[in-house]
User: Which sequence fits this backbone?
């Protein structure tokens, strides 16, 4: 598992892309995300994501009328052991505004990262190379994990 071993006992913030890659069995990323989600389900990693993820993952299934995919995402986000979906509250909104002002992070990304910060995550799993690591929140990108097997060891 390599990089996942280093996350054991941690709180990890989750961006939308890794969740989509796992849920939709994306062949380009499944070998990277599957060990992460398996460790999460075993309770080895506590994973949090923002309610913003709900908005982002449901757009295409709703647009296409794919009721089964809507159900799969609901189950993943609200019924999966080890994954907690956090509602946006005042503290998260204010932290997101700070991130936008100081790091020029897009709104959705700032909400995701602010959620991770407020929920005291140590890591943020994404595939967005534009996102900076922040004090107390290390950004982990799937593409970097794929190209550097020793990542986080």
Assistant:
């Amino acid at each position: 598992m390599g990089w996942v071993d280093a996350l054991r006992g941690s709180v990890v913030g989750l961006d939308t892309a890794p969740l989509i890659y796992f849920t939709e069995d994306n062949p380009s990323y499944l070998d990277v995300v599957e060990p992460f989600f398996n460790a999460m389900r075993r309770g080895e990693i506590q994973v949090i994501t923002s309610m913003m993820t709900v908005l982002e993952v449901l757009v295409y299934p709703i647009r296409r009328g794919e009721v089964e995919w809507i159900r799969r995402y609901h189950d993943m986000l609200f019924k999966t052991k080890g994954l907690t979906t956090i509602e946006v509250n005042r503290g998260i909104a204010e932290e997101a505004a700070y991130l936008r002002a100081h790091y020029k992070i897009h709104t959705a990304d700032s909400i995701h990262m602010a959620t991770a910060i407020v929920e005291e995550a140590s890591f943020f799993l994404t595939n967005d190379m534009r996102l900076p690591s922040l004090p107390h929140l290390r950004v982990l990108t799937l593409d970097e994990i794929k190209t550097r097997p020793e990542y986080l060891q």
In short: Residues 2-147 form a domain with the Rossmann fold fold (CATH 3.40.50.1010). Residues 90-103 form the longest helix (14 residues). The chain has a mean pLDDT of 95. The longest strand covers residues 46-50.
